[in-house]
Design brief:
The chain folds into 2 domains: about 200 residues, DHBP synthase (Alpha-Beta Complex), CATH 3.90.870.10; about 80 residues, Rossmann fold (3-Layer(aba) Sandwich), CATH 3.40.50. The protein has 10 helices and 14 strands. Strand 2 and strand 3 form a beta hairpin. The structure holds threonylcarbamoyladenylate and magnesium ion.
Length: about 325
Amino acid sequence: MIVRPDAEGIRRAAEILAADSVVAFPTETVYGLGAHAFSEKAVGEIYRLKNRPSWNPLIVHVASVTAARELAEDWPDQAEQLAAKFWPGPLTLVVRRARHLPGIGAANDTVAIRVPAHEVALRLLEESGLPLAAPSANRSESISPTTAEHVVRSLPDVPMVLDGGPCSWGIESTVLDVTGEVPRLLRPGALGLRTLRDVTGSLALPSDVADGQARSSPGMSRRHYAPRARAVLCADVRDVDRSGLAGPVGVLTYEGIPGTEILSADPREYAADLYAALHRLDDAGVATILIQEPPHTEEWLAVRDRLSRAAAPE
Ligand code: TXA
Ligand code: MG
């Protein structure tokens, strides 16, 4: 059920969370499927509804840096500086998990944490008083939701979706591991590398991340963010012989190249519309989506990562 995020809506959502069930809520990146992060029952509900493999750990959302520190065994200087600069915002930090915490929905001895920059998410965190584990609110492997309607279509059994309108970033947070000497990029995302380096100085880029094929985050399976239609990445969509393709064919490109869905040639604006465009192409019933490959530059890293996963074979 889609619910307006007024005081009554937030109160009811907090009640559901307190009862160890799940609520979908908007963040500035994508909609999350939230549950009490340290309740085995609540987190189990996330994995069940999403059909998420149990080895894929969850991001814990909290309302403040203070709340984040309480989940960490130690809080490195890099975490302090990054949090001061980018929280609330689309950056997830992986730190060593506090020893008293149960390892529910977690990886090894670490925990991924972020403070989201969305008024509804922050009000929900405050009203519930709970740290909220929240993966993107979609079936595992499919396209992430950037509107409340997307959530309901992918997860019709979610008890409640708080409607915060379309997400402003439209692509997931950047995930950074700060447990080592040099911060290591685990998932490219909304926050760009240049912006991060302004704070961290250097940044370790595993080679599979650098070439847009990241697998270093445990959840980074090869196929992900995938539409129902078969997605095909093309060096130039204009050169493709379409005779052998299953139809109808949709074309996803950016300004300057003709297609069915023409997104911005600016990487941030492109990312903001990407998932909605893939949802629209699926709704239009296309069988194949030809996708114009974006430039091989660092500012397109997160978009190229999502596109290569969307196009990965089943
Ligand atoms: O923008 C976002 O991050 C959204 C919104 C809802 O906050 N959430 C999101 O969650 O994208 P999810 O579950 O779809 O992606 C979480 C990513 C996965 O790649 C997962 O493997 C990684 O974070 N992750 C979580 N905990 C981790 C840990 N302890 N160590 C390494 N990677 C971790
Ligand atoms: Mg996801």
